[in-house]
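re: that chain from earlier
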Amino acid sequence: MRPRSRVDGRSAVVGVLLLAAVFAALQLANVTGRDTPDTRNYLSYALSLTGESKRAAATATIDYVCASRAERARRDQSVHVVRFHRPDPTGEVLAECRKQEWAAVRPRLAAGQTGGRTVPYMSERFMAIFEARPGYPAFLVPFVLAFGVTWGLWTAGVVIAGAGGVLVFLILRTLSVPVPLALAGQALYYVLPCGTTAMRPMTEGLLMALTLAAVWGCALVLRAGR
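^ sequence. v structure.
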């Protein structure tokens, strides 16, 4: 007969992986449409790190941002009680977005604002804020290289958010919380706003995961000192 602790340990691992897999599968409902105003700066930085030229990075970044904006417009219209039956706005929103984005970027590129790693959406002084944040763009590089921009950012978000939930479970188990409650903690991380934030292509999700890793380390130290 197998030791009960070993069986419980395997059940816990299965539960953790199952929750993470379900969370990842649910994120397929919104592959795009999660970007924030900061996303374009981090994405263009990551593309520059892969060796893309400034114009190529600008093109890929603008395409991603505008595709996300168009997806949000389509999604919002589909659930609007009055406008749901109107024609799909994707094409119109996409064209207008590209026009606006290039109107901001093209003159700066033409004026020679090509220094640094980010696409020049704003003045050099403002863009220096993002130039000083290489961590998240560097994290994105392998995902963008392996899966492209859209799926790369989505996969990176799933990895970050999934890891955050697993770390919550590990913290709770290290503090001797029963497995069912630790799994509940992992599930809550996914369904509460922290899970939504972790999926967004910006630094906050990665910072939350790193913070949770530090908390887990503290929990391990506390347990070792008992």
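The first helix runs from residue 4 to 26.
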